[in-house]
């Protein structure tokens, strides 16, 4: 009985914290594109250092990357990152959920995630269950099109279910095979409302303006940040470009 009461109080507390943070960053999104920093590395201590650098230099969302979560697990990674991020940025768990949408997303939200990712090719039930959990915890869901073979149908499904964001994602293996992120964005951006559009894959200082012309809600930067000799400078430069960008 006591454990149930503690669990209920914990859920209420997480819900209230998520609501406050989400509302704050939703206001920011109305003014500018949000910058998400992806920590797609497998060294937890280095990830914590990089998260600190990112938030100190203005990142809006810190992503616990898929490799990091695979290496250390949800219950280890998210609480550790939360201790660094706190209320300075949103925390995203890049689970790329393919199944068990309710269980997977609940685990993430209970361990301080504000946003979880679900695959666009997942079943309607999987995506709907993740969104149900997001609403319960005042979190959000981003639907990732990285594995989608019928993008138009997956976007339609995600929008009908109420996904908060839809991600045009050119993955690392796709980039290595020569797929160009800007070509994919140009081809697909018209399918997604600007307020829900997120873009990831090969974004860096010298090409981000080409992405901003599509008015994304979120841009995601990974390798250009964590491989940089001065990652804080990368965040500052990209934030400056976002703030000064004027649509053509």
CATH class: Alpha Beta
Structural class: alpha/beta
Distance between the termini: 60 Å
- Give unreliable regions as ranges: none
Provide a count of the helices. Answer: 12
Number of strands: 8
Tell me, briefly, the overall form.
Answer: globular
**Residue-averaged pLDDT:** 91
Largest sheet: 8 strands, parallel, barrel
Question: What percent of residues are in strands?
Answer: 15-25%
Helical amount: 40-55%
What is the spatial order of strands in the main beta sheet? Answer: 1-2-3-4-5-6-7-8
What does this structure look like?
- The longest helix is centred in the first third of the chain and has 30 residues, at 2-31.
- The model has no long low-confidence stretch (mean pLDDT 91).
- α2 (44-56) runs parallel beside α4 (74-85).
- The chain has one domain (2-244): Alpha-Beta Barrel (TIM Barrel).
- The chain is of the alpha/beta class.
- The chain contains twelve helices and eight strands.
- It has an eight-stranded parallel β-barrel with strand order 1-2-3-4-5-6-7-8, surrounded by nine helices.
- β4 (115-119), α6 and β5 form a beta-alpha-beta unit.
- The protein has helices at residues 2-31, 44-56, 66-72, 74-85, 101-110, 124-136, 151-161, 172-176, 181-188, 208-212, 223-226, 231-244; strands at 34-39, 61-64, 90-97, 115-119, 140-144, 165-169, 197-200, 218-221.
């Amino acid at each position: 009985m006591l454990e149930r009461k503690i669990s209920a109080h914990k859920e209420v507390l997480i819900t209230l914290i998520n609501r406050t943070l989400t509302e704050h960053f939703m206001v920011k999104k109305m003014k500018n594109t949000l910058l998400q920093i992806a920590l797609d590395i497998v060294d937890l201590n280095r990830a914590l250092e990089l998260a600190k650098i990112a938030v100190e230099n203005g990142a809006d969302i810190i992503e616990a990357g898929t490799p990091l979560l695979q290496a250390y697990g949800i219950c280890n990674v998210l609480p550790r990152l939360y201790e660094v991020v706190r209320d300075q940025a949103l925390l995203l768990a890049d689970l790329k959920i393919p199944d068990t949408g309710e269980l997977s997303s609940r685990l993430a939200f209970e361990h301080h995630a504000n946003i979880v990712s679900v695959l666009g090719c997942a079943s309607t039930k999987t995506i709907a269950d993740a969104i149900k959990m997001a609403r319960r915890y005042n979190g959000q869901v981003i639907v990732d099109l990285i594995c989608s073979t019928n993008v138009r149908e997956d976007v339609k499904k995600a929008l009908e279910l109420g996904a908060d964001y839809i991600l045009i994602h050119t993955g690392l293996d796709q980039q290595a095979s020569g797929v160009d992120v800007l070509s994919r964005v140009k081809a697909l951006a018209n399918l997604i409302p600007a307020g829900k559009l997120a873009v990831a894959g090969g974004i860096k200082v010298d090409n981000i303006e080409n992405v901003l012309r599509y008015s994304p809600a979120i841009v995601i930067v990974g390798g250009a940040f964590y491989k940089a000799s001065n990652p804080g400078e990368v965040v500052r430069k990209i934030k400056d470009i976002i703030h000064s960008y004027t649509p053509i």
